[in-house]
Design a protein that fits this description.
A four-stranded antiparallel β-sheet has the order 1-4-3-2. 30% of the residues lie in helices and 39% in strands. It has helices at 2-5, 89-118, 131-142; strands at 8-22, 37-50, 53-66, 69-85.
């Protein structure tokens, strides 16, 4: 009976859910000498799968441009399946918004750097992310409070 009351947090699986690479202006853009600008967008989403089982996904969109032309665009979603049981409701948000993304994100970073490198470009290394600050910012925005902007 005591085992049913103990909190459970286990990683069931980490996997690459989706990845795409586009080079719409190749090969002409590849001979440009100008340094491209890089825009990186990140997101986190959590979805219940079954009783006590959740999928947490971290998404990244990396777009490089020279002037108004795209050099390459990478969209990736790395996900994990987590078993989370007997955890107080007020702790579920931080677990799925901070702890789970911290586990999944290193895999996403590696996959994004790898696909960009395999496409013939120097790898773009996504910066380390403070998921706690990101989560707190999202909570503040949801509550309608002003919060500082997190930039990479």
């Amino acid at each position: 009976m005591a085992d049913q009351e103990n909190p459970v947090f286990q990683i069931q699986r980490v996997y690459l859910k989706d990845m795409s690479l586009e080079q719409p202006n190749s090969p002409a853009i590849l001979i440009e000498q100008e340094q491209p600008s890089v825009d990186i967008q990140l997101g986190v989403e959590a979805t219940p799968v079954a009783e006590g089982i959740f999928e947490v996904a971290v998404t990244a969109t990396v777009q490089t441009k020279i002037k108004d032309k795209t050099v390459f665009l990478v969209e990736a979603k790395q996900a994990g399946i987590f078993e989370i049981r007997n955890v107080p409701e007020d702790q579920m948000g931080p677990i799925m918004g901070i702890a789970c993304p911290q586990i999944v994100y290193p895999y996403l970073r590696g996959n994004v750097a790898d696909i960009i490198n395999r496409a013939g470009f120097p790898p773009v290394h996504l910066a380390e992310i403070n998921f706690q600050a990101m989560y707190e910012q999202q909570q503040a925005q949801a509550a309608g409070q002003a919060s500082p902007i997190i930039t990479q």
